[in-house]
Amino acid sequence: MLHDDFGELEPTHMALLDEIVTKHPSLHTKVFELLSRLYDRQANQMRLTEVIIGRQRCIVDRFIQLLAFGFALPVIEKIYRMFREGQIDVSLVRYFVLEVLNIIEPPYSYEFVETFSPIVLDREILDVATTTKTPAVSDFIRHVSMTSMEKEQPPGRSSAIDSDSEYEVLDCGRVDFS
């Protein structure tokens, strides 16, 4: 796939990578490395921006597939690192976050929350309007905020959070109870 004569990212190539990810967990690292190299290669091609972003989105879809089948932390770290280094368009990171939030559900591991929360809470990626109007985003932030507040409770005290409470999610995941 990385040969210099390689032209287009064909749907059959992507379907094959999806099958490998689905059926061969031992190859996840190799697929991750291949996708990383493919992504970098797309960014360096002299093409229309729309074409490059379309191809990169196809690769981001494969990263999401990899995440869905258990290779979550390396994928999240890679996407966020590329964003911080200016190697990925913010629209692709936003797409990644929204797609991931649509396929995951609680309970979340501590490592997942620590790795994924900075992306979700980054206002450059998800602005306040997107955060509040997208149920998956506000649900994730609410769950993470409530879980972290419960962990901060002193021993022997019950949580003051009641499931019917009205609250507003603030910047950095803090919760303001009304």
TrEMBL record:
One of its GO terms (biological process) is negative regulation of transcription elongation by RNA polymerase II. The keyword Repressor applies. The keyword Repressor applies. One of its GO terms (cellular component) is NELF complex. One of its GO terms (molecular function) is RNA binding. It is found in: Nucleus. Coiled coil: none annotated. Its main location: nucleus. Pfam families: TH1. Keywords: Nucleus, Repressor, Transcription, Transcription regulation. Belongs to the NELF-D family. This is CCR4-NOT transcription complex subunit 11. It comes from Gongylonema pulchrum.
